[in-house]
């Protein structure tokens, strides 16, 4: 299996050759499809020894109901179903929607957290730090549910769906924007800059999701190459990597980033290993670092949150044995397992446009660390301040990272700022959308 195809939580699509049949009429919710789902799970599911010995597929009304009934719930929060097109598009950044994220501050005011450049929201000039005071004419509090979470009722991602948002801008003025969802190409790099400190050049890199550039062989991100060239040319002495809203994505891109960040002295050393179920041990892999570029950083600072998941955690876990890493913000999500799509191995799934993406492997770093279902704990707990735009040093997480680089520690005022929201954007989504959360 070509390692460049692996994704953390998912894989890029495999090529399957077969004789086409013109008379096939897809029926994605048929009993035949549900039987194919169970057969594929028996063969590939990481916890296949926890599956029922037999199952009556006709007892389930949908594919989703069947999958939910058979997954290993003590650990599996991740397996899901989608379509093949949706899966393929997500991993090269082809999206549909408004194209933004949002989060609450410590006083439960709601702010835009990021906006994709080419999305409908981006083209309308929306920015991180705008406070959302109303959605479709209703106050934010009206969307709170009994569990303490929120349901903002923005509809599906289908192009043409409109919603109205009232914003309070940083200058105190207000504006109401009606925005129509549309298809767009999302960017992974939300912000990059050089921060000049006395005697040091610090790179600051806000990386949103591990998406590959379409058409690249082997799989990689041209955005990553361009960012690393930017930091190399600047001659940075330290790097702050902001993954606070990064839900994961392509493991091939995670490897690409790791190979830029690792020191040359550790090239060819073990990056990670994976483990499949007992039927697939011949397909297990060990991946080594292959140094790219000329960055030679002894310390890395990651800004993290509970929205930092999957491939983001793979990067942190793989580098940790070799580089001094500091995590600032909050604990990460906790996803030490991954998946690849199974329609390539099952004709019934493929012909009915059903993409089954269950957990199929566990992953460990060179020290064997693999069981981090509770996430990686932060070294310095700092609350999010989404009211400040990227690069604004009033953002407490960025300010903390700069203080650690300058002094080796952050002041007490920073530590006292910590809060943990009851609701975060990652809570709004499941499956593929949780990997790439955006509205």
Features:
20 strands, 11 helices, six-stranded mixed β-sheet, 439 residues, six-stranded antiparallel β-sheet, 2-enoyl-CoA Hydratase, Chain A, domain 1, Pdz3 Domain, alpha+beta
Structure characterization notes:
The strands form five sheets. Strands 3, 4, 5, 6, 7 and 8 form a six-stranded antiparallel β-sheet that branches. The protein is built from eleven helices and 20 strands. β3 (100-104) and β4 form a beta hairpin. The protein is globular, with a radius of gyration of 22 Å. With 439 residues, the chain is α+β, with helices and mostly antiparallel strands. Among the domains are: 100-185, Pdz3 Domain; 189-335 and 370-435, 2-enoyl-CoA Hydratase, Chain A, domain 1.
In summary, what is this structure?
It contains eleven helices and 20 strands. It is α+β, with helices and mostly antiparallel strands and 439 residues long.
């Amino acid at each position: 299996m070509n390692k460049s195809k692996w994704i953390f939580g998912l894989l890029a699509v495999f090529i399957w050759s077969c004789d086409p049949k013109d008379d096939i009429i897809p029926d994605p919710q048929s009993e035949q499809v549900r039987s194919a789902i169970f057969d594929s799970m028996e063969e590939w599911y990481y916890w296949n020894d926890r599956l029922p010995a037999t199952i009556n597929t006709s007892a389930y009304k949908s594919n989703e109901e069947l999958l939910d009934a058979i997954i290993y719930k003590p650990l599996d929060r991740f397996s899901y179903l989608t379509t093949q097109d949706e899966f393929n598009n997500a991993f090269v950044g082809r999206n549909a929607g408004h194209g933004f994220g949002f989060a609450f501050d410590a006083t439960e005011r709601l702010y835009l957290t990021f906006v994709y450049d080419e999305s409908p929201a981006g083209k309308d000039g929306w920015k991180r730090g705008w406070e959302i005071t109303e959605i479709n004419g209703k106050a934010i509090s009206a969307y709170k549910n009994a569990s303490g979470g929120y349901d903002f009722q923005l509809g599906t991602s289908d192009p043409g769906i409109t919603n109205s948002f009232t914003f309070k801008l940083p200058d105190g003025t207000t504006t109401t924007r009606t925005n129509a969802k549309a298809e767009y190409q999302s960017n992974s790099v939300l912000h990059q800059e050089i921060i000049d400190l006395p005697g040091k050049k610090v790179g600051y890199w806000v990386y949103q999701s591990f998406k590959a550039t379409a058409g690249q062989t082997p799989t990689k991100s041209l955005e990553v190459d361009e960012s690393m060239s930017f930091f190399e040319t600047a001659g940075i002495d330290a790097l702050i990597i902001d993954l606070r809203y990064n839900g994961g994505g392509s493991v091939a891109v995670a490897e690409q980033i790791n190979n830029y960040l690792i020191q040359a002295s550790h090239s060819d050393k073990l990056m990670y290993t994976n483990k499949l179920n007992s039927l697939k041990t011949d397909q297990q892999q060990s991946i080594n670092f292959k140094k790219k570029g000329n960055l030679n950083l002894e310390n890395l600072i990651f800004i993290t949150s509970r929205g930092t998941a999957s491939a983001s955690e793979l990067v942190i876990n793989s580098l940790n044995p070799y580089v001094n890493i500091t995590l600032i913000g909050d604990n990460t999500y906790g996803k030490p397992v991954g998946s690849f799509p199974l329609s390539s191995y099952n004709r019934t799934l493929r012909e009915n446009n059903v993409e089954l993406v269950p957990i199929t492997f566990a992953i460990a770093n060179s020290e064997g660390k693999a069981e981090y279902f509770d996430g990686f704990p932060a070294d310095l707990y700092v609350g999010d301040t989404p009211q400040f735009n990227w690069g604004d040093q009033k953002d407490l997480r960025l300010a903390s990272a700069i203080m650690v680089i300058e002094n080796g520690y952050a002041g007490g005022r920073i530590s006292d700022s910590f809060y943990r929201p009851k609701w975060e954007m990652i809570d709004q989504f499941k499956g593929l959308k949780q990997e790439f959360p955006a509205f």
